[in-house]
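It is worth pausing here to work through a concrete case rather than discussing structure prediction in the abstract. The textbook approach is simple: state the sequence, then state the predicted structure, then interpret. We follow exactly that order.
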Amino acid sequence: MKRQVITFSILAAMLLLAATSCKKEQFDKEQYDNLVDKLFHVDGLDENHDWLLTKDDTITVKTPDSRIYKIQLLTDNPHSALRAEIMAEGVCYGNQATLAYTVPIVSTQIYIVALDENGDHLAYKGVPFGTKEIEVTLNTMDQFGGIVKKPEDQTFTYVYTADFPVPSDASFDYNDMVLRISKKMPNQNNPFTVDLTVTLSAVGTKEPYAAAIQLADVKYDDISSVTIVEGELMDKGYPFMRSVLKSEEPLVRGRNGEAVINLFECSHWTYSKEKTEVGGVLCRYFNVMRATAENQSINGEPITVTYRINFKTREKARMLTFDRIDPFMIHQYNASNYEIHTYPHKFDEVLVHYITLREAFDNHLSWCVTIPKGDFLYPIEGAKLCSFNNVIGETFGPYEGFAGWLRNHNSNQDWYLNVTRPQLVFTLE
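Step two, the predicted structure:
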């Protein structure tokens, strides 16, 4: 079976060479898709799948109540939920606040919270998702009683497999890069500023890669500055020439003027900053194996940096929701650089040009999964999120619902909340 899988991978690589040679007549799209499907670990992928676990909207909250200075939108009931996250917040200019937000696709309700000028929580109200406009006063909202548990910043987890465009039998474990990103407005009196806190939690490959964040629908010229306010440049002191992210500046310009946040040039230097005996970067697995081995794998605290983005307009800052945050990795295959994006931006070429025949990659597979859960437990090395064999009808993996979701995008949309085999996910002890 392993020899057969390797043969499929070689055939897929040969087809990709035809695709990237600009010779369309040499590329067999159907054959390539069939080969990649055989390497994917879930049979029967939904042909209409969009890989989205979130939805987004905008709401205008009006208030004639002068006691209400600021509005927050939360994911859950702030009075009773174990964890309520701030999706958006804004000062009531002209007695109203218009807020854009992203919420898990399974959510049916959002919560409006009123705050005073001191930042104290005054009252809250649940409304159905999709509400476009509502007027509130403290008298029409539920009052907080006792101590209010402070809501947390909304945080997403992004998991990647690093072998695009040609997978192998080890593909789709989605732990080659694990990023966690949270978003907040650090100063309620400055609506032009947004903080992104980025954490590199795991590296599940020995092949180094670069990483950055595209701010979708934002141009380089829309931003006044990006500064690091907590932590330092992730790969500070990288001793070799930077070939992808050539500048150490936090903000870089994309090929078409996109606004790009510079994360790191080398994944493995980021967490270890060690060299081999011959002078190269020491490449080991990071936070994907419970048992570590010298020069093979290490475990340690994730690397965290906070970037402060100063926009030129309030509108651009207000519209920066999670559906517009596109972290991506850049890795090398066949002496060329390839970008691996979130699924809605799968065909974007932000820093490098590599797609000469778009239809080669036009399928329903994604090399990244965006998960609206900040403490999502990703698979250990060697495990898949979940596999499904159509012949024997068997699922196996730490998230059995993942296979069900891939086979029908309208089902199991909360799969990431239910670990079915805890022994197959990584926890830092």
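Step three, interpretation. The mean pLDDT is 89. Residues 181 and 290 are 24 Å apart (CA to CA).
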